[in-house]
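Appendix B. Chain record.
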Amino acid sequence: PAGDVTGELVYVNYGRIEDINMLEDLGVDLKGKIAISRYGKIFRGNRLKNCEDAGAIGVIMFSDPSDVASNGTDPTNVYPNTFFLPPSGVQRGSTFLGDGDPLSPSWTSVKGAYRQELNETEGLPKIPSQPIGYGDAEKLLAVMGGADVPEDWKGAIPGISYKLGPGFNEDHLGWKVRLVVNNIMEDKEDNNVIGVIKGEVEPDRFVLLSNHRDAWGYGAVDPSSGTCSLMETARILGGLVKAGWRPRRTIVLASWAAEESGLMGSNEWVYDKIHKLMNRAVAVINVDICVAGDILGPSASPLLKTVFVEAIKNVPSTKDKSKTYYQFLKEYYKNDEKPVDNIEDNIEDKIKILGAGSDHAPFAYYAGVPALYYSFDVDTQKYPGVKSGYPMYHTGYETFYLMDQLLDPGFKLHKTCSQLSLHMILQLVQSSILPFNPTHIIKELEKAIDAMEEKNVTKTIKDNGAGQAFDLMTESLNGFKLSVNKWTQMRKEMENTGALDDLLSQRILNDQIMLLER
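C-alpha cells predicted for this chain:
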C-alpha cells in the first residue's frame, strides 16, 4: 500500500520466519523499525508479511549480488556484457498473498458480481514496501550500525560489512530512514484472449496451451519469450486448420491477463468455467517463461511425465543437432550436482512436481486438471552461483537486447520451445488412448514417504499422537498402488486384444484416467 514511514533500519537477511526468529535470539527488535531484506529463498509477499507480523512499519527489498551477480559486480561481469544484474536493477512484483481478484476470493470477478471492501480482504499487505537495486542498498548498508550479521547472512556487495542494526553507525547517530511509497489503489478492467480449434471426434474434450501477456517492464523473458512460443504454435496449428486438418479433441489457446498481479486472468477463468473444466479438460500446458537460459527445466503433474519425455525424444538439441534433446539431457544430468541413479531409465525423476507460481496453478490445484510447465533455465553447472530463477527477473533489463544478444541469439531456443509445445499438444489431442501414466503418481508418493522416514518426520507424527492417521494413510496408499497396477495392466491387455478399437470403449477408459486427479 501507499505509505510514509520513518524509522531505524534493521537488516533481516531474506526475511524468512527463521531469520526473524534469529533476530529475536540476537536481541534485535523489529517493532517500529524499517526492515531491509535481500530478495531470494521465499516469495516477496511472505517476506513482507513476516516482517509485518514482527512489528516492522515498512520493508525495503534489494537483489544482492550473491544471488544476481555471482561472477562479481565489475561492469564487465554484468549487463550489458552478461546476463547478470547491474547495480541499478530493481525487481518489481506483487506482494498479494493470494490468487485472483483479492476482492472476490473464490468467485468470478465479472461485472455485477459482489466484491468485498478492502478491509474485508485477506492477503493484502498493511505496511509499505519498496524494491531497490543493490547500488542503492549499498548506500544504506554502508552506514548501518549494530553487531555483525551471522556468517551465512552476509551478501556480496563489495566493501560492505553487513550489520544488523538497528540504526546507523557512530558517524551517523540519530539518523533514520524515511520510506515513501506512492502506489495507487484502483480498479482496472482486463481481458483474457482465448482461441479455440474445435475437435472433430471429441469436441467436448479439450487441451489447453497457455501463457500470460502482462509484464513488469519490457518483459523480454517473462512473459514475452513464452508469448512468442504461444503465437508461433498458434501460427503452425492455424496453417494446418486452413489446410483442412482438425484435431481429434479441441485445442484451447489462452493468453491470460493480469498474471503478475496474482494469477488473476487464469484464476477468474477457472472460477467461471469450473464445471466444464472438471468434466471436460484433459490437460494444461503452460509456458510462462520460454527462455531464461539454455537448459530445459520441466515440472509436471506425475500423470504427464511420459508426455514430456516423449516430446524431448522427438525434438533436436539446440546444443548438438545430431542428438535429440532427450539424448543431450541424459549426458547433461550425468554431471549434475545431484545425479540420478541409472539415468538411462529414469530421466523422469528429473521432472519436478508442479509449483504454484504461474497460470497452471488454478487448473492443477483447484480444478484438478493435470498440468505441465517448462522453460529453458540458467545452466547451473556452468553458473553454479545462480541458485534459482534468473538474475534479470522482473527488472527493467529484461530487454530485447538481453534476449537477442545474450540469452538466445538466433532464437533457436524459442523454436525448440514451440516444437515441444506442438509435440505435447498433438500427443494429448490426437492419441486415441490418453498417454497418461498413473504409476508416476505412486512413485512420487513413495518418494515423499521415504523422505519423511529419512528426516524422522514419521517419528514426530507418531510421537504427537497421529500415528493411527499415518498408518491409515500408508494403508490407503498401498490400496491405491494395487488399483493403479491393476488398471495399468487392464489397459495394456485391452490394447493388445483390440478391445479398445471402438470409440465408446476408448471414451470409457480415457474418462477413467482423465478424471483421476479431480
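Further analysis of this model is presented in Appendix C.
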